[in-house]
Every structure is written in structure tokens, then in C-alpha cells.
Write a structure and sequence with these properties.
Largest sheet of chain B: none
Shape of chain A: globular
Distance between the termini of chain B: 50 Å
Helix content of chain A: under 10%
Structural class of chain B: mainly alpha
Largest interface: A-B, 44 and 36 residues
Radius of gyration of chain A: 23 Å
Number of strands of chain A: 39
Oligomer: heterodimer
Order of helices and strands of chain B: HHHHHH
Largest sheet of chain A: 5 strands, antiparallel
Chain lengths: 631, 182
Amino acid sequence: MCLPLVDGANGSRGPNMTLLWIAAATLSAAVLSSAACSDRPGASSEAPSSSARSLNGALTWPEADAADDGPWVMAAKNYRSTRYSGLDEINLQNVSRLRVAWTFSTGVVAGHEAAPLVIGSTMYLVSPFPNLVFALDLSQPGAPMKWRYDPRPLSAAKGVACCDAVNRGAAYWNNLIIFNTLDNRTIALDAATGVPRWETPLGDISLGESMTMAPLVVKEKVLVGNSGGEFGVRGWLAGLDAATGRLLWRAYSTGPDSDVLIGPSFRPFYPSDRGKDLGVSTWPADAWKIGGGGAWGWLSYDPQLNLVYYGTANPGPWNPDQRPGDNKWTSGVFARNPDTGEAHWFYQWSPHDLFDHDGVNENILLELNASGTTRPVLVRPERNGYMYVLDRRTGEVLSATPFAHITSSHGVDLTTGRLIVNPQKTPVRGRVVRDICPSAPGAKDWQPASFSPRTGWLYVPHNNLCMDFESVDVSYIAGTPYVGANVVYRPGPGGHQGNLTAWDPVAARAVWSINERYPAWSGTVATAGDLVFYGTMEGWFKAVNARTGEIVWQFKTGSGIIGQPVSYRGPDGHQYIAVFSGVGGWPGAVVVNDLDTRDATAAAGWGLTMAPLQRETRRGGTLYVFTVEGS
Amino acid sequence: MARPIGLITSLACTGAVCLVTFSCEREARRFPAPGQVGPRVEAVRLTSLSAGGSRPTGRERSPFQENAYGISEGKRLFSAFNCNGCHANGGGGIGPALMDAAWIYGHGPDQIFTSIVQGRPDGMPSFAERLTDEQVWQLVAYIQSLSAQTTRDAAAGRTDDLAPMPPDLRLERLSPRQTGHR
């Protein structure tokens, strides 16, 4: 946290006042000696760690030009998760004429996080609870509904959804639309008619489980994971047969190797990840059974290596003193064979996580070309504040560079792979530890970045937040929260809560950054028109010059935006940009549930910083579609 | 130099204060008798709309409504049973705020009692058979203190934890049109 020091020489009104000011200044200096000020993302209060390093070479995406940019067939656009559209009909020359083509109200007013899918001339949408699914006919004026489906999830499921009853979207495979319900069912609908083809129950709300993630279909397997790290839920990723929904394998994130599907193929890069049944031995007795590690975030896939990459969520409870040990395999990233679920490697972003730093963010797969060799890498803007570049064959960390203000750690030890935690910021039972940066929502939460092959940069929507944290002992009661912490979030240096940052992963530095008053909780899409689109929690949808960071267009929608924007070519051949407007998600719960912000811990820490948002936006649930040349 | 106040003198003063201000209830400690503690809650209505015209509603009160120990126990139970996991320190989160004037299922002590015991459709779990009636009444008294529905002098003056809001006894009762927003 950044505070000016009092100048003892000013305003002297006599010896007593001068002494008072000097005493205040000295006290402030002593108390704030560990704090530092910076407006630029990527600056840490401690000496730069050697893990912050630039890369040799250039990052490329070889198939970019061959991509079919008409449709948007999966939430992340493609298996590499670039969230980039090669369409350039909308560009810097005409974006000032971008206008609303049509809108669609889902009828639900809660946080809308989903990415719309466009396949052929149909758009598919999933709403937050009750997870209504809509198919819209893009070939007709105003995109009328073709069909809609109500999976009727249990209303009680809302009681075990930590962070608003959101849903991040559907997946498409072989004329099926596949999505998850909050009450733990994966459902496949006939894409033409909306008739259910199969339904697979996978979890139990009485154990605090829920599902919010967008599935990924890989080689006729539907990959889905659960949520519930705040409810003592044991996390897992499951593979279902895409044609029938039959459960083929389930890989837990904690427990014995046989449950975690760790076998002869497992070759973790770092020694601390080698050993038998570490998913048991790195926990106190039986704590792994309620240990968290859900796979509620993003999956990527490399068809050449036949590996799917995904992260595991935080260990439970938040109070780390109740679970000594590294708490494997939480807050890390797995590489698994999608056919069998077998693990090939694992890397733990935050061993014995202290701060609710889920490891589930997007994994952007790119190729690092240097001196004639190509290294397949995985780029991850991680919750703990570091932009990681890993070799995705092995899980070796090539670099880890701060992209936000960090006080909670000093970098990553590249020899051991271990995060170097700052002991002064470690939570202590019954004591309030202040100014832990990044906060529990992290330098970046679920909101996904995009990559432009034209600039070679990532466009990262993220947070600028620190927190005060008090651990308290908590009892496990199935179906109730298992957290054990009082937390309050505060803006980071600069006073703003969010940023959209253009990040050069090779140079390992920010190129430009836009400050936002609230966390930038929406996704981003980058286009060949050299534009980046994102939305703010107040409800502005913005277009940015991808090279300079200048905001070149914006439009105020009806409610805050936390959705994932997409771009597609309509049946009329013109380019469209679509995004959900409907505030919510974890910070937006303050608005959705009309919380009382006199309590700064409301919504697990947001009461202080999100209070003003209640005056700036109200609940909503409308899809906006923008175009220049279309209709 | 002031004379120190003797023990007997201070006890006598406390007794006098009790008699004068009738605040003995605040300090009472009762050890639970076996069996029923607090009124039996029956026929709780969740709406004021009554077919055939309005009828007076019974409003069983928590026996701990003016009792500092009971409210303090309620506060302890509120975190021990993870109520704070959904309701924070009263501001809400996964569950609604309990310190404001908006009550989905009613703010009366009997209505709060049944909400805890029965659970509610949109995610409030049922705590039936997990809490004794006495514990539920203590929780009711604490929850009511968050919205200043109990006597102020029985509510907590200071918390030893991270203090996210004013002390309980300084919380203000909001009218239905007011909110907690600044």
C-alpha cells in the first residue's frame, strides 16, 4: 500500500507541532518500511527475483493463419486458448462506427460469465443459475430463438456456490451442445433441437459441490471439473464419453496416486513433486478428503503431445495452519493424457497455499522460436501475481515475472521450482496480517486473457488489490463453508482496483496498461483489426488499440460486464462482436445479492472496495451484439 | 487522595443499579434445565397475507433477547457453525445480509428460528438436529442484535477479531427503505 510520508519540515507552528510531525513521520516510516509505491504493473516491493527474466526468441502460433475465424466453437476459441479472431472487417479505421446490431435478454439477473458459441448460423448461450440454454438463429433479423432448454437445477445449489451462481459457457461436439449445471450434472443437448441426448450426474450439493466451468471436448471425451474449494470439496477432473455421457475416468486432485491417476507416465520436473502418494502425505491425516483442488477453470490441449493442461484450485480451508504440508495436488497445473486421465507432469504454483490462490487460470499454448529451435511453452498469468512461462512438455519453469504488485512472495526459485513466500505476510491464527498483495482474488482470477499473433502480446484483464487477512479456526460441516478467514480487500498501489495490461511475454514486461476503477473481471478478445475488446464492472464495453492501449470506442451497456467477449462472422458475411452484460461473479455479488457493505468482509472480503459499485450498476442479463457493416 | 471503593460497596452499588434500571436480565446466567428451552415455535407464518383477513401473529421471542451471555454465545455459534461463511459478519455473501432491513423469510424471532432449523429453498441449509433449541435461540438473539432488534446494552461492545464494521452495540436499525450503502 502506497502512502505519502509526512514532511516534518512543513507547517511548523512552534516546537511542539514540529516534534509531533517528526514523531508521526518516524512512526509512519517504521510501520510502512515494507511497503513501496508503484503504478506500473510488474513492480514488486522486494528486490527483483531472478525468476523474472526475458526469453530468447519469439513466441508464435503457427496455425494462426489457417484458423477458421467465422465460427467460435469453444469458449477459448481454440485448443491453444488464444481467444483471438482473425476477422478484420472491424478495425481501427471504422471502429468509431461500431453500433448495437441486436440484443437478447436471458431473463436471468445474476453474473453472466459465459462465452457465446457460434457454430454455423446458430449462437448458443448458457445463463447463470438456472443455467438456461438458448439457441439463436443468426440468419434471421434480430436473431430469434430456435429453441431453449431449462435443466431445472436444484435451487439449493445456490447455497454452495461460493462466488455467485455463474456458468462459463458450453462446448460443442458433433451436433451436441454440452454444458454443466450448478447442481453437478453434465448435459448434452441436440444442437438442432435442444432435446437432451444424455445427462450425467457427477457430484452432490450436500457435500458442498457445484459446477460452473465450461467443458472442453477433446477426441470424443468431454472434460469437466468441479467447484467447492470454499466448502471442503475434494476436487477432480473427469472424462466422459462425448457420445453417451458415460464416465470414463475421474482424476482427483488429492488423495492416493490411484485416485489422482498418477502412474508410470508421471514425470514431474521438480523433485518435490516426486514420491508415492504425495496427495496423502503432504496433508495432516485425512485432511485431503476435504482438501479442495477443484478443476473449475480453464483447459487447453496440445494434439501433438496429446496432453490436456488445466489447473487445480486452492486447498481448503483458507486457514493454512489447519493443513500443514504442501497440500498436493492443489494450486498447481496438471498435464494429463485425455484418453485415460493419466498424469504426465504437475507443477505447483503455490505449495501450501496461504492466500486462496487457486491455480485454475487459462493456459495459453505458444511456440518459443529461438536459434532455429522451437520450444512448446505454456504461458500463464497466475493468481499469485507471476506471469509464468513453462515448457509444456515437462513442466519446467522458464520464467516467472511479476505482472502486479506483490508483497506476499519474493519470486520463484528456478532450481527447485518453489515459490519463495514472504514470511512476514504469512497468515497467523488470531492475528490480522495486513497489506498482503496480491489479495485472495489474486493478481488475476478466472477472467481470461487473449493473445494476438500480430503484436505477440497477451491482453490480460486483471486485479490490483491487496488484503488484510485473519485466520480463524474452522470446523468442517459438510454443505457449509470451510474457510476460516476474515479478509478485507483494498486497492493496490495507485488506488485503482483493476487493469487491462498488454504484456510482452518475451521481454517479460508490460507494454501498456489501462487502469480501471474496479477489477477488470471480464474476458478479452483480440482481433486482426488490431483491436482488443473488454468490459468493465460498471458496464462499459470498450475497444482498445492493441498496439498503443488507446481506448478507441466504448458503449455503456445495461449492467456490469463480466462475460467473455467473442467475435464471429455472421451468415451475412459481416463481423460481429458479442458479449454478455450482467454484473455478478465474486466481486459483483455485492450488487447481485444487495449486500450490506457496512460489513467490510461481505462476500468474503469485498464490502469495502465494492460498496460504490452498488450505486453504479444494478443486476442485468442481456447479450449485446455489435457490428459496423452488419445488421 | 481518593479512598479505594470496597468490594461490599461496589456489590451494593451494582445491586442498587439492578433494582433501579431492571438490567439484571442482561447479566443473568441460567444453566439449562433438561428438556425444552425457550418457547415451542409452531405455525410460523412467512407472510403477512392471511386468507379471510388479518389475524394477530404470535411472536415468540428468544429468551436471550436481552441477555448478554446468550447473545455472546450466539455470536460464538455463528462462526462455529459456519454461518459467517455465507453471511460474513452480517453483510452477506453467498447468503443475504442479516444486518439490514431486508428479510426474505421474515425478521421475527420465530421466523428466524424456523429459517435456521428448516432451511430455505434458495440455499440456506437446514440445521435441524444439528443445534439444540437453546443454541438456535442464542443464534436468533445474536442475529437480531446485528440489526439492532435487541436491547443495545446486551450486544457486544468490541470484537477481538479483524473489525470490519462498527461494534455490534453501535449497529443501527435500518428502516426497510434504507440500505447499508454509503
